[in-house]
Amino acid sequence: MDHFLYRDGALHAEDVPVAEIAATVGTPFYVYSTATLLRHFRLFDEALDGTDHLVCYAMKAASNQAILKTLAQAGAGMDVVSIGEYLRAKAAGVPGDRIVFSGVGKTAEEIRTALQGGLRQFNVESEPEMEAISAVAQELGVVAPITVRVNPDVDARTHAKIATGKSENKFGIPISRAREVYAHAAALPGLEVIGIDVHIGSQLTELEPFELAYKKVADLTEVLRADGHDIRRLDLGGGLGIPYTRSNEAPPLPTDYGALIKRTLGHLGCEIEIEPGRLIAGNAGLLVSRVIYVKQGEGRDFLIVDAAMNDLIRPAMYDAHHDIDPVIEPAPGVEAYPYDIVGPVCETGDTFARQRPLPPLAAGDLIAVRGAGAYGAVMSSEYNTRPLVPEVMVHGDQFAVIRRRPTFDEIINRDTIPEWL
Ligand SMILES: *Cc1c(COP(=O)(O)O)cnc(C)c1O
Fold it and tell me: Are residues 179 and 320 in the same domain?
């Protein structure tokens, strides 16, 4: 569910007409709904009611500080995968003890900054990384709390580029080697082993892969406890999928996911952490764009819009489907017409949708790309020297620009010309 609905024939973001934002900030832009972000966070939080838990928003999905602050004020922790994200979370006011540091390649410098600033735990991905964390912690005279990310060799049955829990993926240590890796960790002086971490992929549309993985984590918890490790925290990653199409079968709900967690792991008495990203931010954001031209091609018509693959790369990168709606509600009975919706970038991959039925549209009309809140703005680039698009946040009848569009001077002046030229 989201808060982007037609009212009086016009698409609204909560109580604000999308066209009004377009008139103020220009197009294209991202707009996020505070109510939707909070609703999704609370669904997870409530799904784990009765269990000691922390929902750590995987901020790589959408990391604007206004989003982080909104969620942190509601009680969320953060899952970060780089020191840049760590510093951004800190800047948004998230306390260190609610920040979990994940990611396969943390450098000594990143480890040092996080240990100095304070963190909840490192989710360790390899033995060399474990040794590096121990060494930096010793140097600073502290002990680093860690979990080890295990790779349960489970097929998440999602897009290959976002599956992370199979043995051929680069993530975590093979679960079959967990006992020796935990023994190694326990022997390192700068570490305190507190738990187990697992994250099997993104945009999962079934619960079974989670169930397989969490059962393996439950078994492993008992084995590691018998080996003498004080396993008291289980970080279960993120990955719950969202509906990208209205017609799609609905993916599992956070309540069912929470019940699964309690059923598979509840008996262990561990503190539970989850790291949802996409399900919190995905349907809380639209990418709004304006039609520049309608171009007649051979046997098809193109809507050439002012947003492009550099603004939202998911269709090009993951063959992702996004629902696209006109900002003016089509009159009842208007016949839909198939369009190819494309951006101005010089690549055929710069296509948002092919043969998508929409009411007849004309140059100047606004469209909204739905489900663009996660892995949208954060993956954008300035390819073709197109400025990063602004981000706007709506709260009831208010809206605010939370990242402004850079000027061309700012973009161009970032380059420096070497002396010899
Ligand atoms: C990407 C990622 C997540 C979030 O995944 P979603 O599919 O957005 O919920 C959580 N944890 C880790 C370690 C990740 O890399």
Answer: no
Residue 150 within any structural domain of the chain: yes
Sign of CA dihedral 207, 209, 212, 216: negative
| Separation between Cα atoms, residue 321 and residue 135, nearest integer Å | 45
Contact 291, 365 (CB under 8 A): yes
Ligand 1 within 6 A of CB of 275: yes
Distance (Å, rounded) from C-alpha 288 to C-alpha 14? Answer: 15
Q: Hey, what long-range contacts does 290-294 have (CB within 8 A, 24 or more apart)?
A: 290/22, 290/27, 290/28, 290/364, 290/365, 290/366, 290/367, 291/361, 291/362, 291/363, 291/364, 291/365, 291/366, 291/367, 292/344, 292/363, 293/363, 294/361, 294/362, 294/363
The verdict on 127 and 237 lying in the same domain is yes
How many other CB atoms sit within 10 Å of the CB of residue 228? Answer: 9
Determine the atom of ligand 1 nearest the C-alpha atom of 203. Answer: 7
pLDDT tens string 13-26:
999 999 999 999 99
Task: Find the 132 Cα to ligand 1 centroid distance in Å.
Answer: 24
* Residue 333 resides in a domain: yes
Asked if 286 contacts 328 with a C-beta cutoff of 8 angstroms, the reply is: no
270 is annotated as an active-site residue: no
CA 254 / ligand 1 centre spacing (Å): 15
Residue 56 lies in a domain: no
183-242 pLDDT, tens digit each: 999 999 999 999 999 999 999 999 999 999 999 999 999 999 999 999 999 999 999 999
State both tokens at 82. 């780089």
CA distance linking residue 315 with residue 351, whole number of Å = 7
Is the CB of residue 201 less than 8 Å from the CB of residue 163? Answer: yes
- Do both 108 and 256 map to the same domain? yes
The domain tally of the chain equals 2
Read off the CATH number of the domain in which 162 is found: 3.20.20.10
* 264 plus 356 within the same structural domain: no
Claim to verify: residue 175 and residue 292 sit in the same structural domain: no
> For residue 294, what are the domain limits?
4-31+282-412
Q: Is the CB of 241 under 6 A from ligand 1?
A: no
Cβ–ligand 1 contact at 126 (below 6 Å): no
* Residue linked to tokens 């912690």: 137
Single residue among 224, 254, 274 that ends a domain in this structure: 274
| pTM of the predicted structure, to 2 decimals | 0.97
Do 235 and 177 lie in one domain? The reply is yes
